[in-house]
Amino acid sequence: MDNLDNFPKENRDFSNGHFSGSFLKSIVEFFKTAYEKLSKEQRTFFLIFSALVVFSGVFFHPSYDRLKSQVASLGDQQGTNQDGLEGLNAQTQRKYVSSIIELNTASIEELQTLPGIGPSKARAIVEYRKQHPFTKPEDLMNVPGIGQKTYEKLKERIKVENMDAQVQNNAVQNVTTIEKENKDTAIKQKDNEIQLTQMRLQNEKININTATLEELQKLPGIGPAKAQAIIDYRTLNGPFKNIEEIKNVKGIGEKTFEKLRDLITVH
């Protein structure tokens, strides 16, 4: 097959960026001459190859508008992903923003946000401050399981404040608890006195030979244990012969008997 060296030199001027008319004519003549020199099989191959080149260029070459649309879509997707990533990073940073924990008022859940503090150590802190309210952050090292190393990790996130108010509040709570207990005791004693007065007024004495466990507990100074001891005594030794014999029951002495004298009978 001939090559381009067979073209006249005057028709091969590429310096001005376009072909001359005679050069185009020479190209046509070149391919015509080359085609005529091909065998039948070579011509068939040449036609098929040319058809494939034209077909691929027409049907598979993407248009400019299509390429532009794909590039724009890719840019929008990348921007969306970037915005989502930045939003996620911002949320993650907000989640781990450290806060200052007040040792004397923080809940177990709040204490567990401190580095190195799990459920067991958080409970230990709460139990410790019930008996010994924190007066300064360093007191945290007095809690079992929390040493200097753990304290160094969390010292920037803890504080102790308003100790006077806390001590006063604890004192008020203690006084209130004591007053409530005293009030309950006084009410119980008064109820017993009223019950005894009613028994005396009605002259209803309890027969210690037949009384049940519940009835015996109505007597002053007789609880469940002593009531059961009275029943065990009369089961083992037979009925009481007189009220003084009750002093033979374990746990009932002269002092208790004086309270019972007017309230019991053996008949």
Automatic annotation (TrEMBL):
NCBIfam families xrefs: competence protein ComEA helix-hairpin-helix repeat region
Chain segments annotated as transmembrane: 45-64
UniProt keyword annotations, A-Z: Membrane, Transmembrane, Transmembrane helix
A single BP term in Gene Ontology: DNA repair
PANTHER family: ENDONUCLEASE/EXONUCLEASE/PHOSPHATASE FAMILY DOMAIN-CONTAINING PROTEIN 1, ENDONUCLEASE_EXONUCLEASE_PHOSPHATASE FAMILY DOMAIN-CONTAINING PROTEIN 1
GO cellular component: type II protein secretion system complex
Pfam family, one: HHH_3
Name listed for the protein in its UniProt record: Competence protein ComEA
Upper taxonomic lineage: Bacteria, Thermotogati, Thermotogota, Thermotogae, Thermotogales
Residue span, Helix-hairpin-helix DNA-binding motif class domain: 109-128, 138-157, 214-233, 244-263
GO molecular function annotations of the record: DNA binding
InterPro entries noted in UniProt: Competence_ComEA_HhH, Endo/Exo/Phosphatase_dom_1, Hlx-hairpin-Hlx_DNA-bd_motif, RuvA_2-like
